[in-house]
Amino acid sequence: MTANSAISWTDHTFSPWWGCARISPGCRMCYADSVASRWGNERLWRRHGERRPMSDATWRNPVRWNREADAAGRPALVFCASMADVFEDRRDLDASRDRLWSLIDETPWLVWQLLTKRPENAAAMVPWVDVWPSNVWIGASVEDQRRADERIPVLRMLPAAVRFLSVEPLLEPVRLDLDGIDWAITGGESGARARLCEVDWMRSVRDQCAEADVLLWVKQLGTRWARSSGHRGKGVSAGQKPSLWPADLRIQQLPDLRVEAVV
Questions:
Q1: What pTM did the predictor assign?
Q2: What is the mean pLDDT for each group of 10 consecutive residues in the chain (263 residues)?
Q3: Integer Cα distance of 169 and 138 in angstroms
């Protein structure tokens, strides 16, 4: 089974709808907004703009991925939602959310990675209470210290099989409370107007994860740092995707981040 996503830490991406409102500094250079704007959908990223549900054909993709994973005997990772935030607090999204929960129930061979900047809304929006399905992971974006302090304690309270952090785009040094966290992703910002990401900030994230036995995926160093060092910033040859089931999550010893590691 081949991956159906350009995002290095997952196999497939799925969005039940397009659109979201910016709520924190990490949203400033939102890639989803840029992608949608190329198609004339700028209003989808306004607070009071519309949210565009995806077609039935798009909704059938996870069902197909589930069949493929079943046939291969290997669960597949699905990042949801790359073009939205599942937990944006809007009542016009409730029907699509209910459809998503049903889809998750129908696809036990898919590991659903729900990444949000709004973890405080998750408990009230999911249909599960004390025990979430084993194929549902919950993650929070923590791009700076304030967002880490606000979002990680909320994330820790959610009874998902795996809780993870997206420390990307990393905008400043952060001290992470990794108690109850299984996995982390980190990376600098990319794009023509990317903000600076210091490599030492990522080294600190790496060291904190190693000390806490948290698996780390280093996605990229970031355009600003890469340009100043004469590299393209395509990625880093360090890190591991997580094992597919919680019992298999293990600490990975990572090499030091060096200019030579950029590929």
A1: 0.81
A2: 70 92 73 60 65 93 97 94 92 96 96 96 96 94 96 97 93 96 86 79 88 85 54 41 37 33 28
A3: 18
